[in-house]
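User: I've been trying to design a sequence by hand for this structure and keep getting stuck. Would you show me what you'd pick, starting by listing the structure so we're on the same page?

Assistant: Good idea, let's start from the same input. This is the structure you sent:
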């Protein structure tokens, strides 16, 4: 059975090297940045697809996270991992309650407003202090607040659609 990219969820990205023993900074996409260390195994994207990588150690460092990977003991060697996305298998993700979604589920959805106008597709989401923001790219780019029940009226993953109360300016 072959696996597709849909079998994986990107939960972070490998950043620059840290120190002289091969540690790397980790950009975590989890709600609490240190929670990325609770998932495993990690997979990194290579030309041949997703490959498991052994996390030898990981810890909170300042406001972020650093990790040490097995076999990458010096910065020169560890540097080749910089920029690579970190993923886990979809099956490793906790089940969500009804009407809860992972960001990964929302990316790529077609956004349609209350007038039936297609605004575009969700290309990414941003976490802000007040609420998350959907970045939608169509003829124009829109930043739409992710406010279920107020702005976001419905989400249909089977149809790959999100209906919003949002006027085109």
């Amino acid at each position: 059975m072959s696996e597709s990219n849909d079998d994986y969820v990107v939960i972070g990205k490998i950043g620059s090297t840290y120190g002289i023993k091969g540690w790397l900074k980790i950009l975590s996409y989890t709600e609490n940045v240190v929670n990325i260390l609770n998932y495993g195994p990690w997979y990194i994207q290579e030309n041949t697809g997703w490959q498991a990588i052994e996390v030898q150690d990981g810890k909170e460092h300042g406001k972020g996270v650093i990790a040490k990977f097995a076999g990458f003991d010096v910065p020169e060697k560890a540097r080749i991992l910089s920029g690579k996305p970190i993923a886990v298998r979809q099956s490793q993700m906790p089940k969500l309650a009804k009407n809860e979604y992972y960001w990964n589920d929302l990316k790529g959805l077609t956004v349609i407003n209350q007038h039936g106008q297609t605004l575009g597709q969700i290309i990414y989401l941003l976490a802000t202090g007040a609420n998350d923001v959907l970045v939608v790219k169509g003829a124009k780019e829109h930043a739409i607040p992710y406010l279920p029940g107020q702005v976001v009226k419905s989400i249909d993953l089977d149809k790959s659609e999100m209906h919003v109360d949002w006027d085109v300016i």
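That's my pick for every position. To get oriented when you compare it with your attempt: The helical segments are 75-78, 103-106. The mean pLDDT is 91.
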